[in-house]
């Protein structure tokens, strides 16, 4: 497993790996909180996003398909799709200096400080890990501690992308979970209480 010099990114990537590893073989067609995509499409999107980060950083090849129009096809084991994408992104981010004020990213504003760039890639991985985990009825793969560490990147980048990468903020009802994970998911337009429909 390739790791970076960025603990937050390593943690988010491991969260995504664990979520993917926990999906049963017949679970990839399950609906997800990303209402237009099933679990396989979320995986393809998540892998494609990380390849897009790697490509922006290195000038290397990006994803083979548009991450925002993912197919639902898995040609082999899910890890055979995910692992190369995470390894490429991890290697690319390993070369990012913490003090760099202008790191290239694949979405607007296209250049951000190093910590924000790393946080954006980590945010993408961790939230899609949550999508995949809850789609198959497993415990949410996003802790309050990880969510709190991701929140600065979300605060910096979400608003310009609403309506494209993120939906309107989801209103938390009184008495609902108010932890950092629930607050982050709601801010990104997800219902933190979303549950997989009965199979």
Structure summarized in a few sentences:
This protein is mainly α. The chain has helices spanning 7-21, 39-58, 78-94, 114-135, 144-157, 180-187; strands at residues 103-104, 111-112.
Task: Note down, in words, how this protein is organized.
InterPro entries: CHP03086, DinB/YfiT-like, Maleyloyr_isom, MDMPI_metal-binding. It comes from Streptomyces spororaveus. This is Mycothiol-dependent maleylpyruvate isomerase metal-binding domain-containing protein. The chain has 199 residues and is mainly alpha-helical. The protein has a domain of 139 residues: Four Helix Bundle (Hemerythrin (Met), subunit A). 48% of the residues lie in helices and 2% in strands. A two-stranded antiparallel ribbon has the order 1-2. A hairpin with a 6-residue loop joins strand 1 and strand 2. The longest helix has 22 residues. The radius of gyration is 16 Å and the shape is globular. The N and C termini lie far apart (34 Å).
What characterizes the major β-sheet? 2 strands, antiparallel
What is the highest CATH level, the class of the domain at 7-145? Mainly Alpha
What is the CA-CA span between the terminal residues?
A: 34 Å
| N-to-C series of helices and strands | HHHEEHHH
Structural class: mainly alpha
Work out the helicity level: 40-55%
Strand order of the largest sheet: 1-2
**Unreliable residue stretches:** none
Task: Please give the CATH architecture of the domain at 7-145.
Answer: Up-down Bundle
The number of helical elements comes to 6
Average pLDDT taken over every residue: 93
Classify the beta-strand content into a percent band. under 5%
Shape: globular
Number of strands: 2
Rg over CA atoms: 16 Å
CATH topology tier name of the domain at 7-145: Four Helix Bundle (Hemerythrin (Met), subunit A)
CATH superfamily label of the domain at 7-145:
dinb family like domain
